[in-house]
Amino acid sequence: MSDVLQYTVQGLAAGSFYALAALGLAIIFGVLGVVNFAHGAFYMLGAVTAAVLLDTTEIGLWWALLVVPLLLFGFGVVVERLLVQWLLRLDPLYNFLLTFGLTLLLVDLVKRKYGVSGLPYERPEVLDGRFELLGVGLPKYQLFVLIFSIAVCLVVWLVMTRTRIGMIVRASTERPELARALGINVGRWVTPVFGFGVALAGLAGVLAAPFRAITADMGNDFIIILFAVVVIGGLGSIVGAVVGGFLVGLVEAFGQAYAPTYAQILIFVLMAAVVLVRPAGLFGREETA
Amino acid sequence: MNHKKFAAGTVALASGALFLTACGGGPSSSGGDFTDDKIVLAVLNDQSGIYKDLSGPNSVKAVEMAVADFKKKYGDDAVVDDIEIESADHQNEPDIANTKAQELYDRKGADVILDVPTSSAALAVANQAKTKKKLFIDIGAATTELTGAQCNKYTFHWAYDTYMLANGTGTSVTEGGAKNWELVYPDYEFGQDMTDQFSAAIEKAGGSVDGTIATPFPNDNFATFLTKAASGEPDVIGTMQAGGDLINVVKQYNEAGLRDRGIDLAVGLMFITDIHSLGVEQFAGTTFTDAWYWNMDEEARAWADRFTEETDTRPSFAHAANYSAALQYLEAVQAAGTDNADKVVDQLEGKKVDDVFLRNGEIRAEDHRVIHDAYLAKVKDADDVKEEWDYEEIVATIPAEEAFRPAEDSDCSM
User: Fold this and answer.
1) How far apart are CA B411 and CA B414, in angstroms?
2) With contact defined as beta carbons under 8 Å apart, do A209 and A51 qualify?
3) 3-state secondary structure of A221
4) Under CATH, domain B34-160+296-372 is a member of which superfamily?
5) Would you kindly state where each structural domain of chain B is located, as residue ranges?
6) pLDDT, position A1
7) Inter-chain residue contact B53 with A215, CB threshold 8 Å
8) A215 vs B278: CB contact, 8 Å cut-off?
9) How many CB atoms lie within 10 A of CB A164?
10) Which end of chain A lies in a sparser environment, N or C, as judged by fewer CB atoms within 10 Å?
11) Which of A24-38, A64-78, A173-187, B19-33 is least confident?
12) What is the percent of chain B where pLDDT is above 90?
């Protein structure tokens, strides 16, 4: 029983990264129609930036959770203005290739500057140690990651459903023509939405910094799982991305515990099963898929 | 086509001219014994991927240092004046390594290929060396196959192998009182090989392996694997992960607080660059086997200081081993008076060597395993670190004869 609790928390903590990053991916896909292959690289940049900030300016985790997403938002805006926007009218494949190329570029630049063996990172002492729950010592940091990311997902969800901006973004996502016909300037929201999506990937990177290896390659496998998450949740679906993220985290953890060799395959088995039963994903709608 | 012919003609003329001047010129150069009147050392390794920092471009620098030292030592008495260094990136892919090795031997005129991390890539290059009858000195790869069933006359294995790592760490940690082990390993050739070698060493030393867990490779989430490994309350968890995966394991091992529960961590293969990248705090107390450490004595330190001037970083054992291999190869050429591979092999075989890297070294003739003292190392506590890269404490020296697999246990027949 105690093991099951432990695996659950571990799975949900791992799922937090997937959920946050997939949320960004889903929003970008929804509004821009861009399958952002560079999302893994942005996640990596988030972690690397946090490590560099700590090393050079002693900005620790707390401030990094604010500063890094802001920096990456700015970076996302630049990328969208300089590159992505020119290909929006063309086949989605063009932007897929663009972001793929961007990934290679970013990964190699980071390798050049910081090498390949990774950067050190220390978390605040408050988050060291364990928290006793039902007789099981759960790492405080994992609980923090879990609570923090659920909070962020909730805020994003509230913004999306309860505010005017959210309504416009959702309208632009789901019925862009209709939104335009109603006089909404859909194009105006494209750049900030892209930046916001990138910032979410960066935030996931900052959270990962204290307990994942911070290397230029850390996003390479991450992005593949992330695509699985988005497919499971439903392309462009905000709730789907979050639920998919946590679900994949859990599958990974229980897979590692009970069928270690098949842990990663299980994720894709789940993906295949979901696509067979619901081609648009758990929360996707047929039209948007 | 014409251009190529023309270029080839020019090269032929030029080398002919060189040949003549060499013969007519100084008595030092006996050009006739050298196929192209020069020696070409080729470093084939990972110049951009996961092994870049622990070997990579800085190994080329180490080889440059060896060439400089050789020239300084022999000056005009050197049997060859023209020593070139080539380098190539094999990206840890056996196919690329195979193609690059052919290119280096055939077109770049390489007399010896050095380094080649990644076992599968190393075995591919060993095969080329055998076919082309040119030398190959492996440093970066760990497989005992190079000096086992797949050994050949032209291949030498210089620095370390899985037997050395498992025997050193597995035996000494078990004898130190940690009897019950759980092994976590990446599910590919290296990980499986290491797990077998570790299990053998642990059981021989009176311990037991209670469980082994195969993990995907590469992988960034080990939390659950570790929880599972710890559930049987072993004395020690042995991890065979390397590079970035190792860093993930260590971070998550600390996260789970297993050390506080009295479960130690032993690492199969670790380079000093791993400690540097993760920070010494995270690794503190971890035991592992090292082939060489830059701060282990005056001689090593003096060399490391020179290396640091060139590269701005401290050397890993792979850097020192590349230096040593290049230097001993050149010494053998000097003694043989030729770059003829068979004659150089004759010089190397059975030679006893002491240099900055090889202590009590011997180039074993039977299987071409280069044996030398190995070291059981412990990562220092952060408070004991006196300078940057001062991370290791050498707990014990494992004598050369015990550190490596005995020649009679090898399947090698040349």
Assistant:
1) 10
2) yes
3) helix
4) Response regulator (3.40.50.2300)
5) 1-26, 34-160+296-372, 163-290+375-409
6) 65
7) no
8) no
9) 7
10) N
11) B19-33
12) 75
Name the CATH architecture for the domain at A2-277: Orthogonal Bundle (1.10)
Residue A120, pLDDT > 80, answer yes
Token digits for A215?
A: 């290397």
Strands (E), B316-398: 352-353, 361-363, 370-371, 374-379, 392-398
Structure tokens at B283: 């690794």
Q: Are B48 and B298 in contact (CB under 8 A)?
A: no
pLDDT digit string (tens) for B356-395?
A: 999 999 999 999 999 999 999 999 999 999 999 999 999 9
Average pLDDT over residues A174-186: 80
ipTM for the predicted complex comes to: 0.77
Do B141 and B119 touch, CB atoms closer than 8 A?
yes
Q: Which residues from chain A sit within 8 angstroms of residue B92, using beta carbons?
A: none
Task: Tell which of B53, B224, B389 to mutate to test the A interface (max A CBs under 10 Å).
Answer: B224
Size of interface A-B (CB pairs under 8 A): 111
Q: Nearest-CA neighbor of B164 among B358, B403, B395?
A: B403
Tell me which of B192, B212, B241, B277 to substitute to probe the interface with A (most A C-beta atoms closer than 10 Å). B277
Band of the pLDDT at A187, cuts 50, 70, 90? confident
pLDDT tens-digit series, residues A204-253: 999 999 989 899 999 998 999 999 999 999 887 888 999 999 999 999 99
Dihedral angle sign, alpha carbons of residues B19, B25, B27, B28: negative
pLDDT, position A115:
79
Nearest to A221 among B218, B256, B274 (CB): B218
Q: Distance between CA A231 and CA A243 in Å, rounded?
A: 11
CB spacing of B278 vs A118 below 8 angstroms: yes
Question: What is the CATH code for B163-290+375-409?
Answer: 3.40.50.2300
Inter-chain touch A115–B54, beta carbons under 8 Å: no
The alpha carbon of residue B150 is apart from the nearest alpha carbon of chain A, in Å, by: 29
